[in-house]
Amino acid sequence: MKLGSYTSSIAAATTTCLSVPLKNLHSFSSLSFLNWNKRKVGGDMSPFSIRSASLSASTAENSSATATTSSTLSVKKPWLIVGLGNPGKKYQSTRHNVGFEMVDAVADSEGIPLSSVSFKALLGKGYIGNVPVMLAKPQTFMNASGESVGAIVSYYKIPLKQVLLIYDDLDLPFAKLRLLPKGGHGGHNGMRSVIDHFKGSRDFPRLRIGIGRPPGKMDSANFVLRPFSRQEHEELDFTFQQGLEAIRILLLEGFNKSATFVNSAKSMEQYS
C-alpha cells in the first residue's frame, strides 16, 4: 500500500463544495441510515439496502371490525471517521495531511468511495463489518475544519462518542499511533476548530499519528508542510495498516480493546 495511491486531485471537488450553499448540498433522507449499503433487495438493486432497522407492530380491533397496524423503526447511528488536512495538490503527502491519508487508506481497504461532496467535505458511506460509517475529509483548510465536521455531526445527530478524529501530532515520535477517548486540542488548530464547533466539548475519541519534532531550529509551521521521504512513506504504510486494524477493533469490539492494541503495537523496525 503506497501513501501516494490514496491521494487524488480534489481541487475541482473543493471548488464545488465551497461554492454551494449548505441548504443546497446533497443530503440523505430521514431514513438514510436504513438505506446504507449497496445490496440487492427483493430482486431490485436499490442504492442502499436496509441494514439496521427493526419493526414492531401491534393490532387492535374496534366494534366495527377495523384494524390498525403501527410500526416503529429503530435506526443505528453511524460512526463518523474524519481525517484532518488541507485540500489541494500543494499539500498532498505532507505531514499535516496524514489524517487525510489515513482516511484514504480506510476508504481503499473497506471499499468506501469518497465520492460525495457535502458539508464542505469529501464524504463516503459504507460499512466496516456490520457497523455503518461515514468517512470525511473536510475541504475548508485545516484551521476551519470544525465548520465542516460540526455541520455533519449536527445534521445527522451523530453522538460525539461515535466521532473519531484522525490527525497529525508533533509530540509523538514519527509513525507512532495513540488512541485517546477524549482530550484537548494540544495546540493543533484543526482540533481547536472542531472543539469550538462542538460547543467546547472534548468528549470524542481521536487517533493521533506521530510526525515527530522539527529538526534543529526549524519552525513547526514550516515542518508540518514538508513532504515525507521515501523511507518515511514506507514506515507510514505500516502505520496505516495498524491504524486500520485499530479502527476495526474500535468499531466492532470497543474502545478499550482498540486502545490496548494501539498501545501494544510494535513498530516496523521491531518486526524487521
Automatic annotation (TrEMBL):
InterPro entries: Pept_tRNA_hydro, Pept_tRNA_hydro_CS, Pept_tRNA_hydro_sf
Name of this chain's protein: peptidyl-tRNA hydrolase
Keyword list, A-Z: Hydrolase, RNA-binding, tRNA-binding
Native organism taxonomy: Eukaryota, Viridiplantae, Streptophyta, Embryophyta, Tracheophyta
Family: Belongs to the PTH family.
Gene3D superfamilies reported in the protein's UniProt record: Peptidyl-tRNA hydrolase
PROSITE patterns named in the record: PEPT_TRNA_HYDROL_1 (PS01195), PEPT_TRNA_HYDROL_2 (PS01196)
Short name of one Pfam family: Pept_tRNA_hydro
Root EC class: hydrolase
Enzyme Commission number: 3.1.1.29
Residue ranges that the Swiss-Prot or TrEMBL entry lists as coiled coil: none
Molecular function as annotated in GO: peptidyl-tRNA hydrolase activity; tRNA binding
